[in-house]
Here is the input.
Amino acid sequence: MTRVRFVRLAVAGASAALLLTVACRPVEESSPRFGKDVEGAAKTTVALFAVAPPPFSEGIFPCSECHFPTDKVNRTPHAVEFHDDIVLHHDEKNRWCLDCHDAVNRDKLHLADGRLIDFTESYLLCGQCHGPTLRNWKAGEHGKRTGSWSGAKQYLLCANCHSPHSPRFKPLKPRQPPLRQEAIR
Amino acid sequence: MPAPEPPANGYTRRDSVVLGFFALAAAAMSTGCATDKLALDEFVQKHFKDLSGDELKDRLAQMEKRYSEEYGKSVKVSATPPLPGVLFGYALDLSRCIGCRRCVYGCVEENNLSRDPQTHWITVLEMDKETGVDLRHADAYYDHETVPHPGKFYMPVACQHCENPPCVKVCPVQATWKEPDGIVVIDDDWGIGCRRCLAACPYGARRFNWGKPSIPPDELNPNTEYLGNRPRQRGVVEKCSFCLQRTRKGLYPKCVEVCPVGARKFGNLLDPDSEIRYIIENKRVFILKDELNTQPKFFYYYGL
Ligand code: SF4
Ligand code: SF4
Here is the structure.
């Protein structure tokens, strides 16, 4: 089996698990907000703990295993045959792979100004278009924080909940409705 | 902690049980059995706020023993005091809640709610986007394949932990009160089951145990609180306690932890840097039935 075929199989197998799985390995990060001192009030934030980004499909990272910096790159948006498991539903009329993924260093993302960032900092990339959402996320309003309201918490990256390629939430099956009063004996 | 004021008519629950006490004492002596002794202790016990440190310790130990025997595993009962400088507040983003009811069942497991007969502290209401918040058209029994259902939005309701709680005012025996951290609590051993609070609560937040609550022993959460999630009894009212067994130890309530869309927010209203304050100061926030002057500490808002 060729390497490419192997990777393709692995992608198919693991892609479903990709964004459903939330990695909870805590990674220490500095807090985006620090508490002011207010007399008598218990402090809410000291340190925030980030979680690792959702795991990549097996065999797909590092991208530089297949993409080499010396590769000739077609920078015109076009259908990418190999990654056909990815359906782009995220402003797909105006965006495509290389708007976020870096063409030269494939293991990085890039911001609009060309700065390279790691996948763990993807929120910076999202925040370029979703500024108010990033601001709310930093303040703990958008997104989900768990752990302690008064101390160390975990927060999720945008990509933990929203697939970057198709960010809208998929509908969920609700848990069962309560019994009607007349059914309670 | 200040002692509760005696009721205006000078009549207390103490007086009302004196007669019963003699009857029960006679019964206990005639059988001499340990459970009767315990029942007797419970019957003549003091109000939670009147218990001295040692008395409280004894009560907790008694409860631990009883629950551990009943459920066949070690159950811890604590009486964690309110944290100084903390007033709890809750916020829920109506533009994000999808009505999946994960919070309802997370709460059932965390707080040892009866599985049969069924008790839920959280009710998720489904309403039409077209009508907006209109409780007359709310449906708690929606049963779709998937949520959110087109054209609908969802509003979970539980105890609003009113600053000015009508349920507390109407209680004839002071079995329910507001703690310094703003949590409205119920002493399950003190309620007499008159259900006035149930009628007084404008939010339908209180539940009455018409039958004996039952919890499968393997599903019992053994970390319990006197005023919180210890197993409750028949004939007493219960409701959401802001998960005080968690929140007084610095943790988020269970419903915050289980909500898959991050619609639920919790924190200290007195801390200007808390998430909850950010929401109140920056978002379109409203409280339910504000015209009643109950002053809920549960805020609904639109994040988007
Ligand atoms: S778990 Fe979250 S989204 Fe689901 S019903 Fe509760 S508040 Fe709404
Ligand atoms: S919501 Fe109801 S039960 Fe809760 S404090 Fe207010 S009146 Fe009391």
User: Anything to note?
Assistant: Chain A touches chain B at residues 33-36, 38, 40-45, 136, 139-151, 153, 156, 161, 169, 171-180, 184-185 (CB under 8 Å).
